[in-house]
Amino acid sequence: MQSGEFVEAAHTWKLEKLYVDLASAKNKGLTPVEKKILRGLLCGYSPGEIADIIYSSTNSSSVRVYLSNGLYKYIEVMLYSQTNQQVKINHWSRVTKLLEEAGYKLDSALPPQVAPSLIEKNHQPEIKQNFDWGEAVDTSIFYGREKELVQLENWIIKERCRLVSLLGMGGIGKTTLSVKLAQLIQHDFQFLIWRSLHHTPQLSELLANLLQFLAQAQSSEFTLSETSPQRTSQLLDFFRKSRCLLVLDNVDTLLQTQTYTGDFRPEYEEYREFFQRIGEVLHQSCLVLTSREKLKEIATIEGVNLPVRSLQLKGLNEIDCQEIIKAKGVTCSEYEWRLLVNRYSGNPLALKIVLTTILELFDGKVSQFLKHNLLVFGGVRELIEEQLNRISTSEKQLLYWLAVKQDILLLETTEETPPGMSKGELWENLESLVRRSLISKHTTIFKLLPIFKEYLNRELGKQDNLQTEVVPNPNPGKLSSSPKVNET
């Protein structure tokens, strides 16, 4: 017997068989909450309606997390094992159709206990949705970020933010999160477009691509304007008339290197006004950006109570990182995996690079790798240098100084500054480095991540070993020539 919410599902579905088969796909039994949410879907309720019934709240974030990170995956695995055909569930409404086709529905009509309003609701025409995922990455394997997804969904769906930035250092998972977020909230949008700016398109080219898709999807007569500002106005017209979600990945490829953060390269200056207008003009759509650096234009118009927000991504927690370690096939003690995770600050890409080396060179033995006490090498070094080679000379000087000092207190408690750097310059460099995700800020303390600290100290050590040899640096923007820092 079923007890609790959505018990009417037992009248039309083979629930017990479904529970058993999903438990097999999951490798353990469904939790009571998972069963309850599944029954709600089988009754035809949306995630929002399920949340309202279960939690007396219109915020469906927790229900959607249960679906995207659990039930959808279990159903996909179960159906693949039965048919040997891959299926992908991107919307809650697909669940009942797939399960009915798989033979889990009873041959009986809806019982009288089901509310007539529900029957009417199920026969209402759905709003046609038009999605273009571009080169979006596969997120079938996704770790953690439940809290971030809940917060982002709340910003975009409940608080109607017009522009949201996902920020973080290379390898932290911005791209994957942007795709997972879009999949999670796509049902609330009529149009969804995901684009990578890795190939640095001109704004006019990008806008032409976006506008042509939107116009074709609406089957409306459309004449593409000539200039980027005019095309931006056309895009905003679409954003006002329809609920659109636009995701632009790798925005930092448009920015200058070896200067303060957030400045566009001259050939991409048009993007400055574009992002400002999207954030400031009233419309019902949302633009999501991913970047290693925060844009100056966004920093000036964002706020906790404003429709423009930024989310700084930190490393994954220990439990989620442990799942990455298991997936790679590396076994180790709790002490070893905790040490490994802390050394790389939960950066998933850095962790995967290191785990690959452990498998290839140390036969998967983490203890043997840890004995060498070497954090930065190979792919991890490339990941660090790719980020550090973007920064200005003065930022570089501050980073080396922080590497020696371990951390720095905000200047109301200390008057100490790097040699030759004024207090104002220190503040400017600190702000820029925080926006680049190169240093972490905890209340009034700024700290380097362990992998950056080791890299910079090793560079200083190399310079100390060569201090009697003066070699002019033909390219001061490269990190091969580290500024000498006085250890005071």
Automatic annotation (TrEMBL):
UniProt feature, compositional bias: Polar residues = 478-488
Name this polypeptide is given: NB-ARC domain-containing protein
Q: Which Pfam families match?
A: NB-ARC
Sorted alphabetically, which Gene3D superfamilies does this protein's record hold?
Answer: P-loop containing nucleotide triphosphate hydrolases
* Domain NB-ARC residue range list: 146-251
Q: Where is this region: Disordered?
A: 466-488
Name the source's superkingdom.
Answer: Bacteria
Q: Which PANTHER family match?
A: HTH-TYPE TRANSCRIPTIONAL REGULATOR RV0890C-RELATED, REGULATOR-RELATED
